[in-house]
Amino acid sequence: MRIVLDGMGGDNAPAEIVKGAVEAAALTDHEIILVGKEEEIKNELEKCRYEGDRISIVHADDVITMDDSPVKAIRRKTESSLVKALNLVKNGDGDILISGGNTGALVVGSRMILGRIDGIDRPVLASIYPCLGGDPALLVDAGASSEAKANNLLEYGLMGSIYVEKVWGFENPRVGLVNIGTEESKGTSVTKDAHQKLKEAPLNFVGNIEGRDVPFGLCEVLVCDGFVGNIILKLTEGLAKNILKLVVSKLMSNLKTKLAALMLKPQLMELKKEFDYEEYGGAPILGVNGPVIKIHGSSTAAAVKNAIIKGIPYAEENVVDIIRKSMLDLEEIIEKGEEE
Amino acid sequence: MRIVLDGMGGDNAPAEIVKGAVEAAALTDHEIILVGKEEEIKNELEKCRYEGDRISIVHADDVITMDDSPVKAIRRKTESSLVKALNLVKNGDGDILISGGNTGALVVGSRMILGRIDGIDRPVLASIYPCLGGDPALLVDAGASSEAKANNLLEYGLMGSIYVEKVWGFENPRVGLVNIGTEESKGTSVTKDAHQKLKEAPLNFVGNIEGRDVPFGLCEVLVCDGFVGNIILKLTEGLAKNILKLVVSKLMSNLKTKLAALMLKPQLMELKKEFDYEEYGGAPILGVNGPVIKIHGSSTAAAVKNAIIKGIPYAEENVVDIIRKSMLDLEEIIEKGEEE
């Protein structure tokens, strides 16, 4: 298998990307292709003293920056590392793409260059949601499209379920719909309709999940539109970071508690890990004709390595083909239902 | 002024409601009218040894329960404490209503019995959002309607701004629109449109607020639809409670840290207060022809007392009239804009 890395994507590119690739190469037999400015990447590889033959470079002259407008950038920057990397996957010269670059460009580029899987109306960006004291959940949509129709939410549930089963290895994952009440009758016209569709779909639907239950691992797949998904992810991030900060500042507020707090420091640091997304790997784009994984723009080498290792099953387990087949099955089910 | 209390609304009614009324009566010269089963309320008043003459009872035979369907209950249970209490305000025999009963019935009843303020398309339930380490914000809509048009969001901003200024006493409160990015171009078609309308409205609009910034007091009024508002409130509640629980369990995990944690217990308990909604009073319903305040169904006497005392300015400062006038002004502004 050939893993394609966007060597220029992210704040710490290419240094951390290359380091992560070298670390991953020690853990897997797959080939790694770094796409980007050859000289810079070579330099970084030399710094890492990499002497193996499983990392190669494909030169790309241009870079899509964080400020670039996604659609324009994909159309015009044909020599960019991202466009070249996507084309490697499209043409069968790479089996999976991992990038820490401009999220919008990665989503749009995946749609435009790899194309949608037949039957999928809207490819989507999923994200790992760190549940408290347990396994994470896959949140779909994490912000690829702010609006969604009921059918889109159904697609999100189906694709998320397949991904979590094949890539995370959870059997028969539970799928929940983020909503404002547990009753079927609650929500907008879209969530009410989606509830019915998910209930009838061939997946393990556990019903509506309220905001207060989102962090508590009631299901492995959380389905919502991109607006709500974005708010959930960012609110959780903001609250977690700052509640822990508040705890520390309260504890450090006087000498007596300061001493006690210093004793507790290792435990408090451990808590931070509960919210560390990087341990679980990157965020998949689902519904396009090829496995694509987004990593955080500020990813360290360790996060890059994790994303590579944890992402491998996305390609190896043929998740894209399974999604394609499940869409055909779904069409049959719907047609059969209409005939009856 | 006459403050009307739904004596039968909530899990702890009438006991805690009556106790709260007695506590409030010691702090204010206003009259308090308790609406509900006369015998039960009298009993509770006797238990409190209340001997003043500023608390009176209006008998109501029936009660709207938490399981009642809102519209049906308001139409059919005409002898319920809630319907009788709303009619007191409608007929000028009461100046403000405070209830801990069925939220849906309170919102629907307020719309049906008091009626919408002219120019308001959709009355709304606002809620107090506890910002970390600072003043709270008013979140509008907290779940009265799951969907909203851009004009509704504009109304929410205007009413929220007036309420926070007059009832909380914050001059020129900052109004923010909950959205998935800070740029004007971000969001759904509704939030994009609402952004422009809020920008042009006579209020202190500070732009879009992202999920991660919601808890940090960047504005005093947070505008969003009821779906997003419900998710934000419940997710915050769930996360805050459980992050603190996680902190305590981590700290208690071994003997050494257990001793240190016990020393820190008072500080940890103080943290809980940061998320205590009750201190700030109840949640106003905005946009109806009379001041109505919702308190939590599980409110204690202290929360009832707080809601009464903090709610007084909603009636005393003529907030309803000010909203009515601002709607007329807004119409003029819009008409003038269209003529130009």
List the helices and strands and how they pair.
The structure is a homodimer of 340-residue chains.
Chain A: E1 2-6, H1 15-25, E2 31-36, H2 38-47, E3 55-59, H3 70-76, H4 81-90, E4 96-99, H5 103-114, E5 124-129, E6 137-140, H6 150-168, E7 174-178, H7 189-200, E8 204-209, E9 221-223, H8 226-251, H9 255-273, E10 283-286, E11 292-294, H10 301-316, H11 319-339
Parallel strand pairs in A: 1-2, 1-4, 2-3, 4-11, 6-9, 7-8, 7-9
Antiparallel strand pairs in A: 5-6, 5-10, 10-11
Please summarize what this structure is:
Chain A has 340 residues and is of the alpha/beta class.
SS-derived structural category of chain A: alpha/beta
Question: What sequence of helices (H) and strands (E) makes up the elements of chain A?
Answer: EHEHEHHEHEEHEHEEHHEEHH
* Strand order, sheet with most strands of chain A: 3-2-1-4-11-10-5-6-9-7-8
Categorize the overall geometry of chain A: globular
Mean pLDDT of chain A: 92
> What share of residues are in beta strands of chain A?
15-25%
Q: Summarize the amount of helix of chain A as a percent range.
A: 40-55%
**Over all CA atoms, what is the radius of gyration of chain A?**
21 Å
End-to-end span of chain A in angstroms?
45 Å
Quaternary structure classification: homodimer
Q: Report the total helices of chain A.
A: 11
Q: What are the low-pLDDT stretches of chain A, counting only 5+ consecutive residues below 50? A: none
Largest sheet of chain A: 11 strands, mixed
- Largest interface, chains and sizes: A-B, 51 and 51 residues
Care to count the β-strands of chain A?
11
